[in-house]
Amino acid sequence: MRPLSTQRACELDPQAAQPHWLIEGLWTDQAVGVVGGEPKSFKSFLALDLAVTVAADALCLNRYRTHQPGPVLLFAGEDALHMVRQRIEGIARARAVAFDGLDVHVITEASLRIDLEDQRQRLRECARRLRPRLLILDPFVRTHRIDENAVADVAPLLAFLRQLQREFHMAVVLVHHARKARHARPGQALRGSSEIHAWVDSALYLRRKDDQVHVTIEHRAAPAPDPFALTLDTRDQAVALRLVNPAEEPTPDTLTPGDRLLQALGDSPQPMTQRALRDAARMRAATVGSLLADLIGQGRVRQVREGYLLA
Questions:
Q1: What pLDDT digit, counting tens, does each position of 248-288 carry?
Q2: Distance, CA of 150 to CA of 162 (rounded, Å)
Q3: Hey, what CATH class is 257-310 in?
Q4: Global pTM?
């Protein structure tokens, strides 16, 4: 039998690894975890913001950038499909990204039960074909019929999701309810077994106060940024979350994707190719192409033989 691998303590790497991010500050790369909170605390809106961010290489809440863009697989178990579309389209508009072709794949089955083996295998096959960077199950309670308070029931489901995460190198987000009782740590308010809180690598906890929602962040292997407040914004027919009292002066990480392209063009003394813009703005080629088409249509950018420049 092959023995376990070992190293002397003095031979271990002395340097602590820097955290790798899916969305900087909010979710570590390939992390499993929870977007948790009381009812009507915008949990689903925040989960969809994560989805648009990863799928479109955008800025979550117009501030937090993604480092690992790619496809997103979403199960929305409490909303009609036309409502899911409206919400995603509104968030895409608010984040200044193109909705058409957005790489968010919505599971259209009437139900999903990951406590059943055949359903697990179908979900695994879907992940194998799409290779998503992010899987969102919203809410967790609609994906099973187990007793969430029983460790023996909950642990196999969480183990399955951890297995998917490792097999396909993707992050997993469970949207999950929390009890109204106040706890010293937000994760302790999650409904069901404490196994859920122990399982998470990254978590976003939402608590409503008046017309705002306060978000606390938790990571297993990275420092968490300070809590912040959100409100639901409905300007320009784009219903999406908005940071309350963000910094007045935008930094490169708080600019919209379109603004990042405009800034790169403004900083260049000559026309820029699409490849140069992609590298300067740290976006995918498809995202840059779509944004350029929109900016040209708005009369803010023009194309010449050498590339693109401000109009």
A1: 434 444 467 777 788 888 778 788 888 888 877 777 777 88
A2: 18
A3: mainly alpha
A4: 0.77
